[in-house]
């Protein structure tokens, strides 16, 4: 049974979410305080988090950011705000989806199921996947070789690491800061411009038309994502 943690300070909304999710067979727990919710999100064995943005203690944005640094589970943000900037910010720090209040409980359940199903398929594939094939792009993780339409391309170590990281998590948006930390490490010399330069170089090597990328897409104001 999949376990879901709801972090929501409005008891009425939390009860509504819990009722519909439990009716569909999910095990649900609830935290009203953001700080406590963050602790449980980091250390509990939950399969998905439903996180409100405006919370006492610790905001939903901070919860999403901290959990994403440690865990790779679906995170859906619930908010009464409709500003695109909030959606962009949430996606940029690792949220998988956004649901705006008021929402249909059935839509909520459907999105939860979809994200859990996608996540499970990804995990299953990753258990034994050593090669990635996407639209003529072939990445061999064992030999660290890359081919485009059967033609081998030469990548630097960091270019390969960046490409592989993005390709293994398709459609997820990563900020430049997050990519720099993941690929170069917290103690690496340089700044986020390093990511921009490496993406530009990768596009020249793997994209049919670098100015119109089909693999590494720019999400303006947020970062990059890989399209499969």
UniProtKB/TrEMBL annotation:
Highest taxon in the source lineage: Bacteria
Keywords of this entry: DNA-binding, Phosphoprotein, Transcription, Transcription regulation, Two-component regulatory system
PANTHER family for this protein: REGULATOR OF RPOS, STAGE 0 SPORULATION PROTEIN A HOMOLOG
Cellular component annotations (GO), alphabetically ordered: cytosol; protein-DNA complex
A Pfam family per the record: Response_reg
GO molecular function: phosphorelay response regulator activity; transcription cis-regulatory region binding
SUPFAM superfamilies, alphabetized: C-terminal effector domain of the bipartite response regulators (SSF46894), CheY-like (SSF52172)
UniProt domain OmpR/PhoB-type: residue ranges: 129-228
Modified residues annotated as 4-aspartylphosphate in this record: 52
Major location category of this protein: cytoplasm
Record has Protein biosynthesis as a keyword: no
UniProt domain Response regulatory: residue ranges: 3-116
Protein name (Swiss-Prot/TrEMBL): Sensory transduction protein regX3
Entry-linked InterPro entries: CheY-like_superfamily (IPR011006), OmpR/PhoB-type_DNA-bd (IPR001867), Sig_transdc_resp-reg_C-effctor (IPR016032), Sig_transdc_resp-reg_receiver (IPR001789), WalR-like (IPR039420), WH-like_DNA-bd_sf (IPR036388)
Bilayer-spanning residue ranges: none
Keyword Cell inner membrane appears in the UniProt entry: no
DNA-binding interval(s): 129-228
Gene3D superfamilies: 3.40.50.2300, 6.10.250.690, Winged helix-like DNA-binding domain superfamily/Winged helix DNA-binding domain
A GO BP entry: regulation of DNA-templated transcription
Subcellular location: Cytoplasm
């Amino acid at each position: 049974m999949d376990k879901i943690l709801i972090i929501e300070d409005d008891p009425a909304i939390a009860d509504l979410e819990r009722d519909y999710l439990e009716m569909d067979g999910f095990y649900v727990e609830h935290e009203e305080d953001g700080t406590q919710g963050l602790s449980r999100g980091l250390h509990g064995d939950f399969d998905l988090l439903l996180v409100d943005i405006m919370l006492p203690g610790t905001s939903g944005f901070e919860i999403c950011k901290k959990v994403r640094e440690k865990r790779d589970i679906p995170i859906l943000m619930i908010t009464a705000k409709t500003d695109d900037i909030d959606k962009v910010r949430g996606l940029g720090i690792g949220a998988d989806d956004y649901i705006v209040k008021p929402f249909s409980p059935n839509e909520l359940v459907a999105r939860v199921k979809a994200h859990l199903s996608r996540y499970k398929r990804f995990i299953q594939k990753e258990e034994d996947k050593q090669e990635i094939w996407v639209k003529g792009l072939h990445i061999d993780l064992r030999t660290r070789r890359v081919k485009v339409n059967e033609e081998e391309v030469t990548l630097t170590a960091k270019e390969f690491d960046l490409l592989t990281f993005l390709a293994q998590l398709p459609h997820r948006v990563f900020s430049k800061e997050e990519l720099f930390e993941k690929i170069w490490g917290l103690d690496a010399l340089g700044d986020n411009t390093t990511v921009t330069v490496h993406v530009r170089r990768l596009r020249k090597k793997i994209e049919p038309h670098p100015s119109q990328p089909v693999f590494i897409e720019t999400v303006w104001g947020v970062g990059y994502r890989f399209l499969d």
